[in-house]
Design a protein that fits this description.
This protein folds into 2 domains: 2-419, no CATH class; 436-571, no CATH class. 56% of the residues lie in helices and 6% in strands. It is built from 18 helices and 9 strands. It has helices spanning 5-37, 49-57, 61-73, 81-125, 128-139, 150-155, 157-171, 175-185, 210-234, 238-241, 245-276, 280-298, 308-316, 326-344, 368-387, 393-435, 469-472, 568-571, and strands at residues 444-447, 484-488, 502-505, 510-511, 518-521, 525-529, 536-538, 542-544, 547-549. The strands form 3 sheets. The protein has a 5-stranded mixed beta sheet with strand order 4-2-1-6-7, with no helix packed on it. A two-stranded antiparallel sheet has the order 3-5. A two-stranded antiparallel ribbon has the order 8-9. It is elongated. The termini are far apart.
Length: 578
């Protein structure tokens, strides 16, 4: 009878803990929704989205799974077929659910699941306080501004999911399953793979064998990495085979130094940017979230107090490390694990600069979220342990709450850019199709960049322009070279002209995928001037330097006779909803 009492008493405690954990995950989901998805109904398709998603949503299930199967078997998608396969699958399911908004909802759910897994991971290795703070700053991580970009929420978040599940499996002593899950990351979006280096460091008890375990663990991961590298070389994957030996050796080192600095630095930069770009909506978001964070952070309790002088003395005298409270030693271990995670987020970021702080290039920081949020949480908890006993805890709480609220405000800056970028695209195409109804096969439509509007965090009317017109209209199958729209580069005039009155379309003259470069006769070119802020078709000869070039003249309407493609109802203002 007596022996059963502990188990009986433990049951309500487990139930209470589970209830609190569920409430915290709901709070984190609301925070994600407010900070990244509040304006999602005004979001659209951007850059890579426009290449993949339209084709994905029109497939039936048979076509979808046949396509994904072929994609995986042939290792398409730069040797990481799972990333694009996830985009195809989730786009198709989301569109069936609720159109474009349904796709965004799936992206939100995938990210929320990862946040909940991260909270559960830190909760099992540390206190609820650290788990809450780390998870809040996971949600508010703004080094990577692409969380709502569908190509990443659908294609890259599954890699974070695999990473977090692998951590849980490792801690549950299912190490074979953990390594398999980690290896699969290399066939999805690979940058989170080396974050898994920190797995042995997440164990509560390191023991005397921790270094040996860590080295063996690292060796296994590097063996996986080498095998996949050789596989990609074998299939001729350009992103790997195109790297020089020097790049292969230097990029991982330089990115692992620069990336963590930028990743942590943006936690300080984004609040300043939120203040600088504040409007009534952003200020309201900051104010309301400040109230919520004050309640959360002020009532956090830390179980031990540490005197600053004691800490300094211990740091100076190595022999006194054992005098540190167990909680402080645990916090130090978490910090080390978080820093290893943060460094491990960058060695595989070969294709993007590690110092990016705006636009799609901030995807370089995608995998940094796990380590960066844990490092920040450890620093915050250290502040609490140092100052709360001096009755200054309320000051720390206010500072952290204001900091977090400003990060929410920056989330609204990101949302504003996504909303405006979609509106800029709709305005552009609604105006453009009125000016080029006669565009037919072999026609190149060149648009000057002067008056085109852009946003900082996501591209509007940039490199993917040539792939959109043939998705607004169903082009005849016998048009081997359908009309395409190109955005000219800023210095186009000095490099556009080729031989025989032809115009050269290349990396210097246009913003476009390399596969769509080429030459086109000037009389097959429609020139659109945007310098006034409005799109204007030029019918007179185009003057470049001292020479003039005849352009394609207005002919009979062609495009209005064609059936509308998938993007028409999404892109063209006034068209019926899909």
């Amino acid at each position: 009878m007596t022996a059963s009492l502990p188990a009986t008493n433990a049951h309500p405690k487990r139930k209470m803990r589970l209830s609190w954990d569920i409430l915290i995950c709901l709070f984190l989901g609301i925070l994600l929704w407010v900070g990244r998805y509040w304006q999602f109904k005004s979001f659209g398709l951007y850059e890579d989205d426009l290449t993949i998603i339209p084709g994905a949503v029109v497939m039936n299930f048979s076509e979808l799974f046949r396509y994904i199967g072929s994609y995986i078997v042939h290792l398409y998608g730069h040797g990481r077929p799972l990333s694009d396969s996830f985009i195809y699958l989730f786009s198709n399911l989301g569109w069936r659910l609720a159109g474009l908004q349904g796709i965004y909802l799936i992206g939100f759910v995938l990210t929320w699941i990862n946040i909940s897994l991260f909270y559960a991971l830190i909760r099992r290795i540390s206190t609820q306080n650290i788990a809450v703070i780390a998870s809040v700053f996971y949600v508010l991580y703004a080094a990577d501004t692409t969380q709502v970009f569908l190509t990443h929420s659908l294609g890259a978040q599954p890699s974070i999911f695999l990473l977090l599940i692998a951590f849980h499996a490792y801690l549950s002593n299912h190490k074979i399953a953990a390594y398999i899950l980690a290896a699969i990351i290399l066939f999805s979006y690979e940058t989170p793979f080396l974050v898994f280096l920190a797995a042995p460091l997440l164990q509560k008890k390191w023991g005397s064998q921790i270094i040996k375990k860590f080295v063996l663990h690292a060796f296994i991961l590097l063996a996986f990495l080498a095998a996949v590298y050789l596989l990609r070389i074998q299939i001729g994957e350009g992103r790997v085979s195109g790297l020089s030996t020097q790049q292969m050796l230097t990029y991982p080192i330089t990115h692992s130094i620069i990336g963590p600095v930028v990743s942590l630095g943006t936690y300080l930069l984004r609040p300043y940017q939120a203040i600088r770009e504040a409007n009534p909506t952003i200020l309201l978001a900051i104010g309301l979230s400040l109230i919520a964070f004050l309640a959360v952070f002020y009532f956090l309790k830390w179980r031990f107090q540490l005197d600053v002088r004691q800490l300094v003395a211990i740091m100076i005298t190595r022999s006194r490390w054992k005098e540190l409270p167990d909680e402080m030693l645990s916090l130090g271990k978490l910090f080390i694990a978080g820093f290893v995670m943060l460094i491990g987020a960058y060695p595989l970021t070969f294709t993007v600069r590690a110092y990016a702080i705006s636009g799609r290039d901030t995807r370089v920081h995608l995998a940094g979220v796990v380590g960066a949020s844990l490092v920040v949480a450890c620093a915050i908890m250290l502040l609490f342990s140092l100052f709360r006993h001096k009755k200054a805890g309320w000051v720390v709480s206010i500072i952290i709450a204001v900091w977090a609220a400003l990060l929410v405000g920056y989330g609204f800056v990101i949302q504003r850019d996504y909303r405006l970028a979609w509106q800029y695209q709709r305005d552009f195409w609604t105006s453009l199709i009125q000016l080029v109804p006669d565009a037919g096969p072999d026609t190149a439509i060149l648009v000057s960049p002067d008056g085109l509007k852009d946003t900082r965090q996501i591209g509007a009317n940039t490199w993917n322009l040539p792939r959109i017109l043939n998705q607004l209209y169903v082009m005849p199958t016998d048009w081997k070279n359908p009309p395409r729209v190109y955005r000219l580069e800023t210095q186009w005039q000095g490099h556009l002209v080729g031989s025989d009155d032809s115009f050269i379309l290349n990396v210097i003259t246009v913003t476009a995928p390399p596969s769509l470069y080429g030459e086109v006769p000037s009389n097959h070119v429609i020139f659109i001037d945007s310098s006034s802020g409005e799109l204007v078709r030029q019918t007179q000869a185009l003057i470049i330097g001292s020479a003039s070039y005849n352009l394609e003249q207005i002919g009979l309407p062609v495009l209005p006779q064609l059936a509308h493609g998938f993007l028409y109802s999404l892109m063209i203002e006034g068209s019926p909803d899909p």
